[in-house]
Amino acid sequence: MATIVSGMAESRLIAAMRRSRHPVRMQLALFFLAALLVYAVTADYDDVQSEDVVATVLPAWHLVVHHSIDLAPYEDISVWIVDVDGRVISNRWPGTILVALASYGITAPLYAWSGRFVIWPASLAAAVITAAAATATFRLLWVMFGRRFGLIAATVVSFGTGVWTVAAEALW
Question: How far apart are the C-alpha atoms of 6 and 4, rounded to whole Å?
Fold first, then answer.
């Protein structure tokens, strides 16, 4: 039974994506922009953040600014920056560090000359990535259950859970 339901949902998803036209894209773009606006305005751009966040974005910033992955100068800044076999590294997730690396690489001309650690590129990346995930949730729920349900459910998930207060605030 679960296979039949799963197959029906998958075929509905594929069929709906084939029918996708401009009005659908416009509604998705509006949802994305609304989520991005709320997330970007309320993100934490302060350089003093959780040790988790610092340990996630510091390796990306250091690689862009100092062209090195050696975090020895920052070993005491977070409990998540550790010495492993004589190399000081962050033990945070590589995928999140890669997102941070992209955001730091794009924005480097705005701060790299100072050599000062900044967190705002990662916070902005968190807002963008989270808004994109919220929009994908909206689209998926729309296809599976209809536009109205998709909009309501995605709005609740996007603004009534930790998606907004945690994921969109900083790059964890």
Answer: 5
